[in-house]
Specification:
The protein has 496 residues and is of the alpha+beta class. The protein has twelve helices and 26 strands. The strands form six sheets. A six-stranded mixed beta sheet has the order 16-17-18-19-21-20, with helices on one face.
Length: 496
């Protein structure tokens, strides 16, 4: 399986596309005005303790108070950190939350889950610092291997490599070997240990002087996280379309993972990088409710606060033999497509898949096996239950951030919540990209943007700096015009 990473950088946002065998599998977006906070470490203050919930609410100068459960305050006893490759296993009864914290107490916490919907961030006091192949647990002495690495010989080999690195460069604390280290021959964890040592020293220095509400440590930006977390042996190329970011990514790779340096390329092409492999089109389709299958069938996604449902339909597929064969082929194709869409759309939590009911038990088993194999390629932890008598399959997928739909869209004021529309900010960035595309393809004296009042207002106010930078970059004026007939998602860019 060949894999390629595309990194698109603008002043407003960074986007990363994960391409497998020529098809888009994942897209990650980080906007400069609303960066994710998972992995960040804060000095917080306890504002409320709820013994009945075994939890406390922490003020860490975020938009909403964050949530800290007693289970996330127990010292490391399992195979790894709560936000690492492994799941914590706590032995024995947990102490009462009132014995652990009290109102007004200052406490160092780390974010393990971004705020989602109306819920605040999820916190832990079990600090963990990740590198390319290792996770450092500063307050633990445990050493372990990711539970996803199941081969006993491989686990022994990696444990020996970790011991060898720590003998050369002794360092206190617990360590977990991440899944990314699996099957890498001749691996040496020394570079990871030195990276973690520097990170730990910086964090401890800031912790000593931090006050309540201070940010002690911010996780790496997306452009570097993609190298640390997604660049595996089967990644053939990492293409970056920004010279500045390319230099930063390359230096990061030299320091931490030199074997990846030759695979990192600067992309200077006139064609926008996300037009490769039709990534832009795939992102647009991922915001739609219905996904068409090649056979003529379809998937219908409905996201709610509690769960996501996926309905499999035969649509126009009538098959060539009989009804049972038609249903089986549609379900087999749907199993692959659903696993891909869950990754692409960042759908987490409880997912109910309504496969088309099949009579043949062997067909049911084959569909389930295909679905399990497809989900096994997902980097995010998934659990799948057996198919019910009604053809329903329950899947749980770890949720640490908003879905792509909820990140890029907002409730439509016209339909009062029955559907969604892209935000004005998203449209502004689409307009910027369209102007860049037109500027590279055609000669013009200037450009006129005709869009809705909300989009024009944002271009004149919050995105005025970006608009000015774009005008300076292309060397042509950009005129704005409110077009009442346009809704928020429609616009025109006219050459002058």
């Amino acid at each position: 399986m060949s894999e390629e990473l595309l990194v698109n950088v603008t002043p407003q946002e960074t986007r990363v596309a994960v391409i497998e065998n020529g098809g888009l599998q994942e897209v990650h977006i980080e906007r400069s005005r609303s960066r994710g906070i998972v992995g960040n470490i804060y000095k917080g203050k306890v504002v409320r303790v709820l013994p009945g919930m075994q939890a406390a609410f922490i003020d860490a100068s975020l938009e909403r108070t964050a949530f800290l459960h007693a289970a996330d305050m127990v010292s490391h006893r399992g195979n790894g950190p709560a936000n690492g490759d492994n799941k914590e296993s706590h032995v024995g009864p947990q102490p009462d939350i009132s014995e652990l914290v009290h109102e007004g107490q200052e406490i160092v916490v780390q974010v393990v889950k971004d705020p989602i919907g109306s819920k605040g961030a999820r916190l832990t006091t079990q600090l963990s610092i990740p590198s390319r192949h290792l996770v450092l647990l500063p307050d633990s002495s445990h050493r372990g291997i990711s539970q996803r690495i199941q081969d006993a010989h491989e686990r022994d080999r990696l444990a020996q490599a970790l011991d060898a690195a720590l003998e050369k460069s002794p360092m206190s604390g617990g360590f977990i070997v991440r899944t990314a280290a699996e099957s890498q021959q001749g691996i040496d964890f020394l570079a990871d240990v030195e990276f973690l040592r520097r990170s730990r020293e910086q964090i401890e220095k800031k912790m000593a002087t931090a006050r309540a509400g201070d940010l002690i440590h911010a996780d790496l930006p997306l452009s570097l996280r993609v190298i640390r977390d997604l660049a595996r042996d089967d990644v053939e190329k990492i293409r970056v379309d920004s010279r500045e970011t390319f230099a930063m990514v390359r230096q990061f790779a030299i320091d931490l993972m030199p074997e990846m340096v030759d695979r990192i390329e600067y992309y200077p092409g006139e064609r926008p990088i996300f037009d490769l492999y039709s990534v832009e089109d795939e992102i647009q389709r991922s915001l739609e409710r219905t996904v068409l299958l090649k056979s003529g069938g379809s998937l219908v996604f409905d996201q709610t606060e509690a769960m996501t449902t996926v309905d499999v339909n035969t649509g126009g597929f009538v098959g060539k033999r009989n009804l049972e064969e038609t249903l089986f082929k549609t379900n087999m194709e749907a199993a692959q497509a659903i696993a891909r869409q869950l990754r692409l759309r960042h759908i987490g939590g409880i997912i109910i898949v309504d496969f088309i009911d099949m009579v043949d038990e062997e067909h049911r088993c084959q569909v389930m096996s295909a679905f399990e194999r497809a989900l096994a390629r997902d980097r995010t932890r998934c659990h799948i239950a057996d198919m019910s008598a009604l053809g329903l399959v329950e899947v749980t997928r770890k949720r640490t951030r908003e879905s792509l739909e909820r990140m890029m869209s907002e409730t439509c004021p016209t339909c009062q919540g029955r559907g969604t529309q892209k935000t004005a900010q998203t449209l502004c960035y689409e307009i910027f990209r369209e102007i860049l595309r037109e500027a590279r393809a055609f000669e013009a004296k200037g450009y006129r943007v005709m869009a809705s009042q909300a989009v024009i207002d944002m271009l004149l106010d919050e995105e005025s700096t970006g608009l000015g930078d774009l005008q300076a970059f292309i060397g042509k004026p950009i005129h704005l015009q409110v077009e009442p007939v346009h809704n928020q998602e429609s616009y025109d860019v006219v050459l002058m």
